[in-house]
Write a structure and sequence with these properties.
alpha/beta; four-stranded parallel β-sheet; 13 helices; about 45% helix; about 10% strand; elongated
Length: about 325
């Protein structure tokens, strides 16, 4: 099994006992399911900067309109240390990762909604971002990132894993050498996946690559992948999936009999109404693709954006 994908992960989510209380927050999805397909690169920024296990708790505190990380009594500030470590990881390893899974609500690793306390400790807001995670995301804006808690949502889980695989494919393209042909081929393979997430981006990025011979291929590639990854960030809606499925069924209109067409239309309509999950009409389309081969459709990432055994589309 190919495990060339590399995902950074908060070490406590792998089961490592690195938390302040010598505990962990092992993620069953990450370690029992996704781990079959990826390599994890674990990080515990708090241990990395020299904090012991066990250790006093730390939290984000606003002091004179500046947020730092310290113990509840205000001592032991480590905000700058966490930031510096995040910058080191981003610079030395960030370009080799296909995604990152952070521990939610952590003052070092949380992606969002981290509690920020006042100096007296009598109140807090949920405006903080982890000091380590913020540096990783800032330095690698294309990198798919998610929190362990949000991965319990099937739509967010599927979306994150899909983006990891797309970004991995992009990194392989860049490593193999960029050319106009390779860039347009990459786009061609991802057209229907992109359509299912953002139809306007599908049109805009198609126009961007419409005539790139002789232009600055590096600049166009940077604009393209930024547009693609941003478009894929929001989970696809049922309406957008339905529109994409209807486009795909058009490829078979000359090959299917009346009853087969009705069956396919019914499956798409049932999905549109929320009666069946996405894999039902997709399975039927794959069947017709096997019976009536179409090389262009067979290569579409939309049909298999991630390993089937993860069953990520069963709840969508």
């Amino acid at each position: 099994m190919d495990k060339s994908l590399k995902i950074g992960i908060s070490a406590c989510l792998t089961g490592e006992k690195v938390r302040f209380d010598s505990g962990h927050k092992r993620s069953n999805f990450c370690m029992d399911e996704l781990a079959k397909h990826v390599q994890y690169v674990p990080f515990c920024p708090e241990v990395a900067i020299g904090l012991p296990i066990p250790r006093p708790t730390i939290r984000q505190v606003r002091k004179d309109d500046v947020i730092t990380v310290c113990r509840p009594d205000g001592s032991g500030e480590v905000g700058n240390d966490l930031k510096n470590y995040g910058q080191q990881v981003a610079q030395n390893q960030g370009q080799h990762l296909d995604g990152f899974i952070f521990c939610a609500k952590s003052p070092s690793c949380g992606m969002e909604r981290v509690k920020v306390f006042n100096e007296a400790g009598t109140g807090n807001t949920s405006e903080g971002v982890g000091f380590f995670s913020s540096e990783i995301m800032k330095a690698n804006p294309l990198l798919p990132c998610e929190e362990n808690g949000r991965l319990n949502d099937m739509h967010l889980r599927e979306n994150f894993v899909m983006r990891v695989y797309v970004y991995h494919s992009w990194r392989k393209l860049r490593e193999s050498g960029l050319s106009a042909h390779r860039l347009t081929t990459f786009h061609s393979l991802h057209k229907y996946l992109l359509m299912s997430h953002n139809y306007q981006a599908y049109r805009d990025l198609g126009r961007l690559l419409g005539s790139i011979e002789g232009d600055d291929i590096e600049a166009i590639a940077d604009e393209y992948i930024l547009g693609l990854m941003n478009a894929l960030k929001k989970p696809a809606s049922r309406k957008a999936h339905t529109n994409t499925l209807m486009h795909l069924q058009g490829y078979f209109k000359q090959h299917l009999g009346k009853e087969e067409k009705q069956e396919l239309r019914a499956a798409i309509e049932d999905y549109r109404q929320g009666l069946v999950p996405l894999y039902v009409p997709l399975t039927l389309l794959r069947h017709h693709l096997t019976v009536h081969p179409n090389p262009y459709l067979a290569q579409q990432v939309y049909f298999n954006p991630h390993p089937n055994d993860l069953k990520l589309r069963y709840g969508i």
